[in-house]
Input
Amino acid sequence: MVFRNADLPGLFHHADTLAIGRQQSAVKLTRTQLSLLVVGAAAAALPQVRTGSGLQLLSAVSALAYAGVLLATFGAARRHAASHWQLNRSAAEFIKSMCWRYAVHGAPFDLSAPDPDGLFVARVEEGLRELKKVGWRDPREEGELAAGGLVTPGMRELRARAFSVRKETYVRDRLIEQRNWYRRRQETSRRATRLWSTAITLLTLLALFLAVLGTFSVAQRADVAGLLSASAAACLAWSEIRRHQPLISAHSLVEQDLMEMHVAMENTVTERQWPQAVYETERIVSPQHTDWLARLRS
Output
C-alpha cells in the first residue's frame, strides 16, 4: 500500500499551495529590497554622469533604487506575505500530521477510539480554530474551497489494513520520507552557508583593504568601501533571514531523532505501543518543534 499527498484532503492542498505561493512572494520581496539597496549604493559610488540638462544620471538611479526599497517595504506591510506563509504552512502540516495519525491508528485515533472519524474531524477543526485566532483564514468560510470531507478514501483504506501494512506504509512513506527531506535540507543549507560566508568574507576583506589604503592616503575611494560594506551587509541580512546555520543544527537533530524512532519501530515497538510511537514521530516532524530547535541554536 502506498499513501501519498494525493490521498490527503483538499483543505491540505489548498493550504499547501498558498504556503508555497506566499513563501515565494516573501522571499522575492526581501531579495528585491536588498538588491535595490546595493544598486542604490553602487550608483552613488560610481563616477557621476551629467546629462545635457545638468542632471546627475547615476544619482537619479540611486534615488529611484531607494524609492523602490520604500515602495517594496510598504507593499510588504500591506500584503503580510511572510505571516500568511507561516500560517498556511502550519495549517498544511497540522492537517497532514493528523491525517497520518488517523490513517495508521496513531494516538488518539487507535482502536480504542469509539468514533475515530468524529474524533478526527473534531481535533482537526479545534486545531484550525486556534490558527484562526492568530490570523489564518479558512478557505471554506470564504468560498475559496468547496466544503468537503476531511477523511478521504485513501485514509480509510489505509486505516482498514492490518497492522503490518500500516506499519510498513508509515515507515516508508512518512518516516523515511521525512528523514530524507531533512537530510536534503541540511545539504542545501550547508552549501548556502558556505556561499554566503565566502561572499561576506571577501567583501569585508576588500573593504578593509581599501580602508587601510585610505588611512595612509594611498587611496581616497571611501565610496567604494561603502559599496562593499553595503554589499556585505546585504549578504549577511539574506543569510540571517534564511536562517541557514541554525536550521542545519535543527534539521540534524530532527533527523537523528527520526533515525532512532525508525530503529525502534522496526525492532521494538509492538502493536500496543504503536499509537504512541506514531504520535511521538509526528511531534518530532512538526514545524513548531523544528522552529523551537532552530531558535535554541541561533
Notes: Residues 1-161 form one domain. The radius of gyration is 26 Å. The first helix runs from residue 10 to 45.
